[in-house]
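Example record

Each entry pairs one chain with its bound ligand, dioxothiomolybdenum(VI) ion.
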Amino acid sequence: MARKIKKSRFFFEENFIETIGEVSQNKYKPLKNNEKLKYLGKKISRIDGYDKASGTAVFTFDIDLPGITYAKTLRSPYANAKIKNIDDSKARKLKGVYEIIHYKNAPKIKWYYGSSFLFDQHVRYEGDEVACVVADSEELAEKAIGLISVEYEILPHATRAEEAMRNKVKIHKSGNIVRGKPGTYERGDINKGFEEADLVFEDEFSTEVAIHNPTEVHCSVVNWEGDKLIVWDSTQAVFGVRNSLAQSLGIPESNIRVIKKYMGGGFGSKLEAGKYTVMAALLAQKIGKPVKIALDRRENNLAVGNRPDSVQKLKGGVKSDGTLTALSHYSYSSVGAYPAGGGCSWPLRTMYKCPNVKVEEYSVYTNTGRGRPFRAPGHVQGIFALDSFMDELAEKIGMDPLEFRLKNYTKIDQVSGRPYSTKLLKECYKKGAKKIDWNKRNKIPGSGKGYLKRGIGMASQIWWGGGGPPAYVTLKLNQDGSVNILAGTQDLGTGTYTFIAQVAAEILEIPIENIDVTIGDTDVVPYGPGSGGSTTAPSIAPAVRDAAEQMKKKLFSGAAAILNVEQNEINYNSGKFYSKKDKKELIGINKIIRKMHERVLVTTGAREANNDNYMVQSFGAQFAEVEVDTLIGNVKVLKIVAAHDIGRTLNRQTLENQFHGGILQGLGFALMEEQIVDEYTGKILNANMHDYKMPTIYDVPEIEVVIVSEGDKIANNMGVKGIGEPAIIPTAGAIANAVYNAIGVRIKSLPLTPDKIIDSLYS
Ligand code: MOS
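Structure tokens for the complex follow.
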């Protein structure tokens, strides 16, 4: 097992991370193209598909334990208030209520910010945690919540960035600009860039607050076995949750076991330990019983994350031949009271070739729920604005939008100066344009006849998603040729179990049915990172290959020793060794393991280091065809063509699932999803799935997924890049450009709801 401590870099969500850790030094040849492989790249149903379809799959919510109790949270009804007093005496008298915790009796656990505690007397948004009750049933816990009386001093609130930037309302002591200053970026000379331009143009775009709304709401079940805490949690990061629980509770990580077998989506809202998990652990400890805490849809909409809104002011300079000379971006976002992440300028910095760039972006605290990473954080908002703007520039200089993008194509990452490992965006443009029939679009926007107007538009995509170390996999080969894999990862519902089995089956030439995969259990699997940033497959698949290749080596040397031959005299094929000379079958896995006096052969694989001379990114373009009803303002998306360069396809079926999900989520963001705040009361008006409009089956367009790439030879030993986030990034931009092409009026504020369409057409 050749391993070394090495430095390498990768991107997780919007963060650039330098990893220094043990990585595999084993170098493997790039795999063949998918058509020559048996399992990889094929449409293979999920190995856990039966469990899910039959309802036997155990999700966190399904965990039931003897004596289990139920916790519910009392949340602030106000956007900004001080808690003067809490009286829980009435609630405590209710039979079947075990315990209630709040600022008066809970440990002062620091939470994210120095100025905030698990229970803070200053509640900063509607939904902020005030108290938590545990009782024999959820109904009883709810009832008890109604009996707690809280005295609030209501404070003025600021629910939108514009308001908070005036600094009249103090959300945190530090002021309302996150980190006290804007995020900035600059290259070249922006003024010179504008001077060199034949045309300088400015415009403003805005996007809404969107809610993750995964199918499965956030949920934890906790149980203390002595001083060991067992936590079933709906999370994207079992080790991340273990780590923050240990810190919050002040106990060793080894005393915490976090388990997550199945999950109904997270989209970035489940990357961290929730307050609900810590509250449940404290309550379970106090009462000596297991506790289940499941958020309801309203809590899910208020308190566990959102995609922050954005106001983006773009300015561009372009020469009459279409060369971009300058791009600047000024933006601000309402990121809530306890945000993570923020910013939406990344695509502008490097999507299109431009020597002079300037960025200034503000993340602003607001009295609303926390902004969290949400499927391609920043990029979805950023690409909508940038690609709308690119279309505007193209039109102003009389160029085809695709031609304009090709004119400003870059083969290097302009921020780091490094070349891309691969960039097949030109192929995406070409194939996507052909599939949507690009020439069919209106030469003059809005020139279609009749009241149903059709249009075609496109947008590009860039995302990190290269993954990296550390990520480990333990592979156990049993005497009967079956395999157990323990991988340091978890499945958000994207198909992680299945691709792990596929990689092992491919390399070891063992039927996929004989491979069992265990993930999502911190006591059982080796370490691996959280599932975010589209890094799961590119981080874990190479480690699976490493473990499987080492196992093959082990079998080779075992077989050679037993047969008393040189390794180069024998061939391996599907679990058996043959003589190279006369093709005679010599020995199989079963006999090798027995002769080695073992029952189980074990190897551990590690993700290799990234090649820092290159930038690994995925690329793509989506093309939309829409039909706008100009009488009622409704937009129907007829077709989306998604053409992407995402390295090797591991599983064509789960890949298409991911694209369908991403595109539909992008369609919702483009046309209907929007959290609505009443600015006067600071309350959320649509914290449910009736009033918060999400796409339904009725809205699903025809979707065609075109993958232009085979394995990326530089990215990692499997040639794979992530696809979860690339799938959503260009959708809204493509739809917005298509709507413009259909009606000839550009709406610069998402979502493109009927009222905005009608206003823009008739006012
Ligand atoms: Mo992250 S937004 O869960 O990829």
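The longest strand covers residues 324-336.
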